[in-house]
Amino acid sequence: MGQLVIHPDGQRAIRFGMCQRCLSTDVRGFTCLHGSCSYCRNCLHLGRVCRCDFLKELDVTTPVEPTELVMPFDLSDGQQHVSEQLLKWWETKTSGLVHAVCGSGKTEMAFPVIERVVNVGKRVLIVSPRRDVAIEWADRLERAFSVPITRRYGGGEKDTVGMITVATAPLLLNLKHVFDYVLVDESDAFPFAFDLSLWWTIRRAGKGVFLFVTATPTVWQRQFPTVHLSRRYHGHDLPVPTLVRQTDEAIIAFCQRETPRLLFVPTKADLVRYGARLTDAGFTVRMVSADTDERTDTLEWLASTNGIVLATSIWERGMTVRGVDVAVIESEHVLFTSRGLIQMAGRAGRKPDAPTGDVVFFYNERTWRQDRAIEALERANRR
Questions:
Q1: Angle (nearest 5°) at CA 131 between 126 and 136
Q2: Which of 7, 55, 227, 242 gives a 20 to 30 Å CA spacing to 275?
């Protein structure tokens, strides 16, 4: 168990057309110092490995140490039920799914089982779909646990493994059988949903006990033993979207509210198009996409100024603003899946001192994806 690194005493890095570091077959030919060669493109961000290189497995784990847990708040009855189930699954070495609605406090529900795993000398991995979500996980864990948290994502640590490690999947490619307990947060999100190689990476990094956590599980994830949590920790119903025929007047009327306003659009080109319309109407607007580096600054600006933010689906998960109202422009767009629409609606009403919020699906035509999202939220409220 350990990290695969380039070492002259190891085995060939590329054999039979497959990279032995990340198990990818995305191998390309080039000319190296030794002549004709080939290298792996899939794990190039970890440093190039070519057919001339050798890989060796080295132990990069820190010494085993126990931890103390300070819970940030008392768990609700529903959260406590989920937390106890996670402990039972760990004792029986069972992998499972936590199907919990957006804003239910999924992070804190996992703290007791993380403490249990660490205090028997085992290592925990939390895998996040995005760097900003990983940062939020690491910050919360550092406040709750006494052991250091290893941050294995862009800008973090890449050469060590602690008792608790928070990572994005691409930085696990060179790890093998290191973690005893693997929690995959937002396990249906991009890039997990579209890249099978990432699941092989996560599986190889772990040792057999996995926990999938999401509000919108995929079909294959539903095959695992499942524990449900259909209420947010503050006990209020989930906001149910209202369908509104899309017009410029309807969008402007939504933007005239005095609450923080978050409007989702399908593509980056739509950010520019609708941003120009709202600016021409006299509104001050900020925009967020995967290319936006100042997403945290924009989040703080939205909360402090009751402003307006146009965002792509990059913000459908992992962001919380008190009292925000949410709209989805062109909600019939093919890029907006029913799971994505549920996650977008889940941005509203997350805070206990602001447990409600309006969600509007603007549409040019009705689709089954809109209806399915609304039905799922209504069904959760009835549980």
A1: 65
A2: 242
